[in-house]
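To: structure desk
From: M.T.
Subject: fold request, one chain
Message: Could you run this one when you get a chance? Sequence is below, nothing fancy, just the single chain.
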Amino acid sequence: MEDIFTIQIKPMTKNDIDGIIEIEQQAYGNHHWSKESFLSELSNELAKYCCAFDKDGNLAGYCGIWQILEEAHITNIAVSPKYRRKHIGEMLLQKIIDTCYANMVKYITLEVRASNVPAISLYEKYGFKSFGTRKGYYQDNNEDVLIMWTENIFYDKFRSVYEKRVNELNGNITVL
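Reply: Done. Structure tokens follow.
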């Protein structure tokens, strides 16, 4: 049995951005968001960003969405390499979905590299489906991006899948 991992998820602040840039560089190489982009997002009234911290206060990952009326677009979810495979990305996705429920958002969309199989698998576990690609979207290697959507998250089908995933994860991770 694996150890239970404890994280705390809090709203992103300016003080978190240097750590976020480190995670960005590790996750995306030279093609990552700039510090100025994240600073701008903190003042964007459509944007909501959170950070995950381990029990010692170390930044483990972050996520963000833009909410426009009844739709949310996941801008990013990234986890530091040393914290991967501990369900932190999944907890951040759950935080996004909970935020959407609280704000009466019905649909969630995102774009993901076609080669990012772990992320695609995670999104599919939560009922996201691919509804198309953008060919050659990424400038660093001309890779395609998948466009993924949920059905209405208030529908019983989505809600039951979501609640099942939350219950399954509760034994592996504690969120403060």
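Reply (cont.): The helical segments are 17-28, 35-42, 88-102, 117-125, 156-169. Let me know if you need anything else for the meeting.
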